[in-house]
């Protein structure tokens, strides 16, 4: 009594509890003020500022963003009723306010609202007075002061599946590619090393010329770029950090005739990066003579050592090159080739079926043809694994140099990284590819080796370890005897489609784009589902349409809708997103939740008709409005992010959502070798 606080247990509860708690909180201490002309806001007043911060976090988890204004009314002494018919002088604490405005009022009305009938009706009337939705708000926090206080343990956080976690009411995603100062950015560019091999030798003169030009170019970009945030512009121009790097390293080694994991390959990697780093610095020194050193140079270690002034605080990095290496048609960064041959489904025949094409590494195909041994049969064999390490149809001299990611030991990957890292100013993007059978000890050994060899960081990926995957079908076929003993299934005749059906269409945000779901019913109940995502003709759209058709045929065949919902909900995709306060795992998950919401709304509609429309005077428009007001979130849905036990990943494959090809993991990024889809830059 007298110490009303929002405890951690309250914040760790679920959506339903949040809604009930916040409704009561706003009923007690909340107000609605303003009008359409001056602006409308929902406000929560408290003397306990921490309670407002907790409420703000809870609201943000429901998709409602708010602002807090401290000390709106200062502390004072005031005569107030004493409960005995008289008055007494009371000390009134400072009052603080949480304010919800603009579009967030509509989110508040939908997700929270009021129990109090008077406040609820006022909010409803005010929101209905808008002719269009209010503008979205920008939320910026100004840091007034940073003070060293104490030392705390800091932990790395990873939540499998969503690959994100809740941080002070915001959804945060892990990223650690490039260590930067606050508000700083880095201008990246990569040289295609495969272009500098002539007659099995490296053209050092041409590489030097390109390096000098590239460094000059990146420095120009810093000045020519249009910055959105002034603080980022100020910090970027104060340090002028560039990230000149490389790609096509694996292709270069093949042209030189060396294996990726050979001693020569490691030596070439170290020599190449030393050469580029040295020349990039020379270019930066020349620019400093003409244009001046970066503004903070006198605060640097270089200045303290008496080194020549440079234009850029750092010049080189090894960045992920997922997209630009596709454009340049070369291997990514300093990574090995992932697969020499893979299959791609991309062309339709006259009957509308997709034709499977073999995609072969350009250099491998040329060398096989030069030796007169190229054939579709051999390429099909190689496509099963992507590697030629144990393929006797490929000559030994080619097997030695055409090394793929899974032919390498973890130590091979680490040695290459160490070789490049010696001469890189910034960070390095490098991935160790583990087979599905890799153990915890295997990973531990790799991490320890990277640590002992002084790596700045290392990324590992075990095949099939991503939680967001599609299961392959096993080969456990029943015997002929088992099949003959099984009773013949009874036939089911789907009910015919009437000329007119009724339903609703809902728009749901998913990781693959906006999904439009139409649910129709006939006199028996739910009848069919239509779903559309993206442009017509895309693979993602085709898959969503196929799922909707299967749902429709199941509904028309009188399969209980609860069973359909149970099968759809919880299916994870490659990019879960938040939509109206709930996590949408994938388009199938969105379909399941849309069906569940439709059923919930129908129950509410039935109640409206039963309780408020017995005299049949209530109009159809009023019924529709009552239906829309009763959109409820997921039952027992919780916004608390938890870590789940990683399931067995045997027989699991990453499939591209666009073309269906097998996804690969390279340079810390999932990408498709078929249609080149990538989640990274």
Automatic annotation (TrEMBL):
GO terms for molecular function: cobalamin binding; endonuclease activity; nucleotide binding; ribonucleoside-diphosphate reductase activity, thioredoxin disulfide as acceptor. Belongs to the ribonucleoside diphosphate reductase class-2 family. Transmembrane segments: none annotated. It comes from Candidatus Berkelbacteria bacterium CG_4_9_14_3_um_filter_39_23. It comes from the Bacteria. Its cofactor is adenosylcob(III)alamin. This is Vitamin B12-dependent ribonucleotide reductase. Gene3D superfamilies: 3.20.70.20, Homing endonucleases (3.10.28.10).
């Amino acid at each position: 009594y007298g110490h009303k606080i929002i405890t951690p247990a309250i914040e760790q509860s679920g959506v339903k509890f949040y809604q009930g708690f916040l409704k009561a909180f706003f009923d007690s201490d909340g107000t609605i003020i303003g009008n359409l002309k001056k602006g409308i806001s929902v406000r929560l007043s408290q003397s306990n500022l921490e309670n407002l911060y907790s409420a703000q976090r809870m609201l943000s988890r429901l998709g409602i963003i708010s602002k807090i204004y401290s000390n709106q009314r200062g502390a004072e002494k005031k005569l107030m009723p004493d409960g005995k018919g008289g008055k007494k002088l009371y000390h009134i604490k400072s009052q603080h306010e949480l304010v919800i405005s603009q579009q967030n009022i509509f989110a508040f009305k939908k997700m929270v609202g009021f129990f109090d009938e008077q406040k609820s009706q006022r909010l409803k009337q005010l929101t209905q007075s808008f002719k269009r939705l209010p503008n979205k708000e920008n939320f910026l926090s100004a840091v007034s002061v940073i003070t060293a206080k104490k030392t705390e343990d800091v932990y790395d956080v990873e939540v499998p599946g969503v690959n994100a976690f809740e941080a002070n009411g915001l959804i945060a995603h892990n990223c650690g590619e490039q260590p930067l100062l606050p508000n700083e950015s880095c201008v990246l560019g990569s040289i295609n090393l495969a272009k500098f091999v002539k007659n099995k030798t490296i053209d050092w003169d041409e590489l030097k010329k390109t390096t000098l030009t590239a460094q000059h170019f990146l420095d120009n970009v810093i000045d020519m770029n249009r910055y959105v945030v002034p603080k980022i512009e100020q910090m970027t121009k104060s340090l002028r950090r560039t990230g000149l790097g490389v790609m096509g390293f694996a292709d270069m080694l093949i042209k030189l005739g060396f294996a990726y994991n050979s001693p020569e390959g490691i030596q070439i990697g170290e020599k190449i990066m030393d050469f580029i780093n040295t020349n990039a610095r020379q270019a930066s020194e020349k620019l400093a003579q003409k244009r001046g050193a970066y503004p903070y140079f006198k605060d640097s270690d270089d200045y303290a050592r008496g080194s020549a002034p440079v234009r850029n605080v750092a010049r080189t990095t090894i960045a992920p090159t997922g997209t630009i290496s596709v454009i340049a048609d070369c291997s990514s960064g300093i990574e090995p080739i992932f697969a020499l041959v893979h299959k791609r489904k991309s062309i339709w025949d006259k009957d509308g079926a997709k034709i499977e094409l073999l995609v072969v590494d350009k250099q491998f195909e040329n060398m096989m043809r030069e030796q007169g041994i190229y054939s579709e049969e051999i390429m099909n064999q190689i496509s099963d694994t992507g590697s030629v390490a144990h393929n006797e149809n490929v000559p030994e001299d080619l097997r030695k140099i055409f090394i793929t990611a899974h032919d390498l030991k973890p130590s091979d990957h680490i040695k290459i990284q160490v070789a490049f890292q010696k001469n890189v100013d910034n960070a390095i993007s490098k991935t160790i590819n583990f087979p599905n059978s890799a153990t915890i000890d295997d990973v531990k050994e790799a991490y320890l080796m990277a640590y002992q060899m002084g790596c700045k960081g290392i990324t590992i990926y075990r095949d099939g370890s991503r939680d967001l995957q599609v299961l392959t079908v096993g080969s456990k076929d029943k015997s002929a005897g088992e099949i003959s003993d099984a009773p013949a299934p009874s036939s089911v005749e789907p009910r015919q489609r009437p000329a007119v059906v009724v339903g609703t269409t809902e728009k749901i945000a998913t990781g693959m784009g906006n999904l439009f779901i139409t649910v129709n019913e006939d006199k028996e109940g739910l009848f069919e589902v239509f779903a559309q995502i993206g442009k017509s003709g895309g693979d993602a759209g085709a898959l969503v349409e196929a799922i909707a058709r299967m749902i429709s045929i199941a509904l028309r065949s009188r399969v209980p809708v609860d069973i359909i919902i149970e099968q759809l909900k919880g299916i994870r995709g490659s990019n879960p997103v938040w939509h109206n306060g709930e996590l949408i795992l994938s388009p199938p998950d969105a379909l399941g939740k849309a069906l569940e919401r439709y059923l919930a709304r129908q129950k509410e509609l039935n109640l409206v008709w039963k309780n408020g429309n017995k005299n049949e005077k209530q109009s159809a428009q009023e019924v529709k409005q009552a239906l829309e007001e009763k959109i409820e979130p997921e039952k027992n849905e919780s916004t608390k992010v938890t870590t789940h036990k990683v399931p067995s990943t045997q027989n699991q494959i990453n499939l591209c959502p666009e073309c269906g090809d097998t996804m690969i993991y390279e340079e810390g990024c999932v990408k498709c070798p078929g249609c080149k889809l990538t989640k990274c830059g």
